[in-house]
Amino acid sequence: MFAANGIAFQTIDLHDDPEADLNKAKYYPISRGIIKSFAKYVDGYEFVAVDGIAKCKEVLENIASLDGMFLELNSCEYACVNGPCSLISEGTAVKANAEIRHYASRGRTVPTTDQLIKLSEVCFKADRPRLRPAEYTPTEREIKAILAKTNKVRPEDELNCGACGYNSCRDKAWAVANGYAAIEMCIPYMRERAESMSYEIIQNSPNGILLIDNDLKIIEINHKALSLLGIEDSAVKGCNLYDYYDASDFLLAQQEHRNLYRKKIFISKTNAYAEVSIVQLKKENVLFGVFKDITSETDYDQRVRAMKLETLKTTDEVIKKQMRVAQEIASLLGETTAETKVALVKLKQTLQNDEGE
């Protein structure tokens, strides 16, 4: 491969300059080691090293407010030289840091051409057994119990994807047993758990939830929406919404690029009333609809309104009846008064005639 690319080690000019690029990589295990290995720095950028989990967490939580910075983040305090597999004892990280700096700053011996040829014939490959702390070795039963907590109950469930930082699911289970890892570090499990929880929340929502694409085809629909819209076929994903429901509100929201909030509608298919809100999710190119069932509230309002109208009607009839009674009483009183007057006049005339005689 080297010969095909015209590379001849014998012609390479080796340097023993302690600041040369070939020595800079030796600074890697210490804080600012990555920054120090750069051949040159980019203008306009600040190069900052942060070590320790607490400090790294603080930086990442405020990452949106940072600009023009290169961050070298080390979760281990004092960087890799003080990592979990370091052989130094507690309190000597500073000394180890100084030793690495001294080692990296030394000039190196330049091998002769003969030495290079001999080195090329040496095989540096070696198999080393994995070293683990001897404080605790979990049993097979404990390993399986830990795996089961992330839904890994069969060998085929162990994906061994390495996303957690360990080579296999069993290695991660060992780390959990020893306190080096958490159950939640399994990314496939956490994704499955999040998706499952989201699905359960949507399906058990008291409101109807409907998700459609730009072609007005159903992407997702929950049980409440099926019931409210009178859709008996539960396998409607991928079907056109307008085959089951008047999609004019969704079409209007799509064409006018605006959201719709709390519009009161009547669904004749189920004799139900609902408040519908439609929101555009522009990044996903979908429309999200929420149907709030207000049938009970609407029926109650209608009953109250009907009761008021009935009361007004009854009141009007009572008033009319009272007026008729009053008129009849007045009529009777008028006739009686007239008859009394006639009788009294006649009596008066009779008495006057008697006195005249």
From TrEMBL:
Residues 142-203 form the 4Fe-4S domain. Keywords: 4Fe-4S, Iron, Iron-sulfur, Metal-binding. Residues 194-264 form the PAS domain. One of its GO terms (biological process) is regulation of DNA-templated transcription. This is Uncharacterized protein. PROSITE patterns: 4FE4S, PAS. InterPro entries: 4Fe-4S_dom, Fe_hydrogenase, PAS, PAS-like_dom_sf, PAS_fold. The lineage of its organism: unclassified sequences, metagenomes, ecological metagenomes. It holds the Pfam family PAS. It comes from bioreactor metagenome. GO terms for molecular function: 4 iron, 4 sulfur cluster binding; metal ion binding.
